[in-house]
Q: What sequence folds into this?
């Protein structure tokens, strides 16, 4: 970094930390410095846009600055801090994940995460083997939070294989979708042969019991209500002059 950019970076730091008159004075000096040396904020900090407008500094995030400096992070210090940064954009998170040794992170934190999520360490590591970048990016939060949530989801998928609940008719299928959602807290999906859902053995037994005990009554009741509603609409139409 040249003396010019070094001085500019120091002025940026003063502007960020300053308040009141100190901030105003630092901003004035920084603006003059940029114009005199034909520099942009990007030249002083790669996390900033290519502009001389100081308003861009008001939206500056430390985590974005650290992501911009990752290519030169030979010690891994920045990466270790970014793992737990919760304000990363999806693009920034993806950049972090591409440099992250996920297996090493799981080795370091897996035991604690397993305890927190009610899994054994063996179960946690087995579920983690099913997780890749796509699954991690589907979550939210810091890279570490996304990874832990993705492993939890993978473990749930392992213990809740997809089942086909055979049921005919749209009313019956919709009723079974409601049963699945109520029992598992997760949605099922329609299939030409019925409903597909991820169910554990106990959940499967409970949904099948609900189907055996209540499905016929639910569909009959729904059909009767539909017919009654249609009759009411027909009667109203008949009384309305054309």
A:
């Amino acid at each position: 970094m040249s003396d010019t950019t070094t001085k500019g970076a120091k002025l940026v730091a003063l502007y960020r930390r300053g308040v009141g008159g100190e901030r105003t004075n630092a901003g004035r000096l920084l603006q003059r410095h940029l114009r005199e040396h034909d520099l942009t904020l990007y030249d002083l900090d790669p996390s900033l846009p290519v502009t001389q407008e100081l308003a861009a500094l008001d939206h500056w995030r430390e985590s974005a600055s650290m992501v911009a400096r990752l290519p030169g992070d030979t010690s891994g210090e920045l990466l270790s801090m970014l793992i737990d940064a919760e304000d990363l954009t999806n693009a920034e998170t993806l950049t972090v994940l591409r440099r992250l040794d996920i297996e090493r992170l799981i080795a370091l934190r897996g035991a604690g995460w397993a305890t927190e999520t009610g899994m054994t360490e063996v179960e946690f590591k087995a579920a983690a083997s099913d997780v890749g970048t796509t699954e991690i990016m589907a979550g939210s939060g810091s890279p570490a939070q996304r990874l832990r949530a993705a492993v939890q989801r993978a473990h749930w998928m392992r213990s809740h294989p997809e089942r086909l609940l055979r049921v005919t008719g749209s009313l019956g299928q919709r009723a079974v979708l409601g049963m699945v959602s109520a029992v598992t807290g997760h949605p099922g999906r329609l299939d030409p042969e019925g409903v597909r859902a991820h169910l554990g053995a106990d959940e499967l037994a409970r949904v099948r019991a609900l189907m055996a005990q209540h499905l016929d009554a639910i569909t009959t009741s729904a059909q009767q209500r539909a017919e009654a509603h249609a009759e009411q609409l027909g009667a109203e139409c008949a009384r309305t002059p054309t």
